[in-house]
Design a protein that fits this description.
- With 341 residues, this protein is mostly helical.
- The chain has one domain.
- The protein contains 16 helices and no strands.
- The longest helix has 30 residues.
């Protein structure tokens, strides 16, 4: 069975994911900056599946309580700090949006026609992930009872079922919002990460050292592409997710891709990527500097404040509380695997 350990390149993958998301919301470029969310999805699926399978290999079981404790310690401090600050700033307005964010149902609210304020709209992706992870640990435990050689195939069958469902919905006229925001129809990038995590954890991941540079170039080119090429319903988004998974394996395996992704600026962005994701849009919106305000110069001036607020959230609140909430055994199990949105 493969062992992950700490891989600096995975922080770089997070940095690669968050940079275009922030740039899109600040400047409207790159046009496909939202693909950074799918990078997060793939990485999160890879890491959490690896973590759960490594725990099962070490202990013979998967502790759901420990898993959800880790998730809460990772996600709750930053999110609830943001929601408290926002609630005070808007004097209790947008109560329904705050409720949806706090209960990880923002994506469902969007599908039901309740988009809420745009400065909280990005929290849909957190809801997407957490809804998936309500189902995934018990399902993975069930699947992992099969022979190790069969586990990737079983995950692949679930992925195929999601892609078939998406195809059927598209053929019957489903909207882009339904496809992109559905917890079922946008599960494919997370499942692709889960598939590659299972391959790695069971020692069946292929060597991607030669494919890594091409996959990294593909990911970069897709983010910079015209929006019409990889729209919400484009099958090329699934190809993009596979390219992301290859980049992740390359970051783990080593070589030129791992060295690129281990560059200090990318690693730094990756380490604070969750905080940056949470805070960038509310801070930009408070300053009237989002893409919807069409003030790129102001956005450029506000970005240092975005970075400062994100660093304060991470270093002063999130990291201390995460360390305090984690049990000694959990520190051993999760020393290298820290999922993020």
């Amino acid at each position: 069975m493969g062992r992950l350990g700490y891989r600096p390149g995975l922080d770089g993958v997070r940095g690669l994911a968050i940079a275009p998301v922030v740039a899109l919301h600040a400047f409207g470029w790159p046009r496909q900056g939202s693909l950074g969310v799918d990078v997060f999805f793939v990485l999160s699926g890879f890491l959490i599946t690896t973590l759960l399978l490594e725990e099962r290999a070490q202990t013979g079981a998967i502790s759901f309580g420990r898993f959800y404790r880790r998730r809460a310690a990772r996600l709750f401090p930053g999110l609830f700090l943001l929601l408290i600050v926002y609630a005070v700033a808007v004097r209790g307005a947008h109560a329904s949006a705050l409720f949806f964010a706090a209960t990880y149902t923002t994506n469902i609210a969007h599908l039901a026609g309740h988009p809420g304020p745009h400065e909280l709209g990005h929290l849909w992706s957190l809801a997407q992930e957490e809804q998936f992870y309500l189902v995934w640990p018990p399902l993975l435990l069930l699947l992992s009872r099969a022979r190790a050689t069969r586990l990737p195939w079983l995950i692949g069958m679930i992925l195929a079922a999601v892609l078939v469902e998406k195809t059927v919905l598209l053929a019957t006229g489903a909207s882009q919002l339904r496809i992109y925001g559905g917890p079922d129809t946008h599960a494919d990038p997370i499942l692709i990460g889960c598939l590659f995590g299972a391959l790695f954890a069971t020692g069946r991941a292929p060597s991607v050292r030669r494919l890594g540079p091409a996959a990294l170039a593909t990911v970069a080119a897709a983010v910079l592409a015209d929006r019409s090429l990889l729209g919400a319903t484009s099958p090329l988004r699934t190809v993009f997710a596979f390219a992301c998974a290859i980049v992740i394996l390359a970051a783990v395996e080593g070589g030129i891709v791992a060295r690129i992704l281990s560059l200090r600026p990318l690693r730094f962005l990756g380490q604070i990527s969750y905080s940056l994701y949470l805070w960038h849009l509310p801070v930009l919106a408070a300053a009237g500097a989002t893409v919807w305000d069409a003030r790129p110069v102001r956005a450029a001036l506000v970005l240092p404040a975005v970075l400062a607020v994100s660093c304060a959230s991470f270093y002063l609140v999130e990291r201390p509380l995460r360390c305090r909430w984690r049990l000694p055994r959990e520190r051993t199990l999760t020393a290298a695997v820290q999922p993020t949105t």
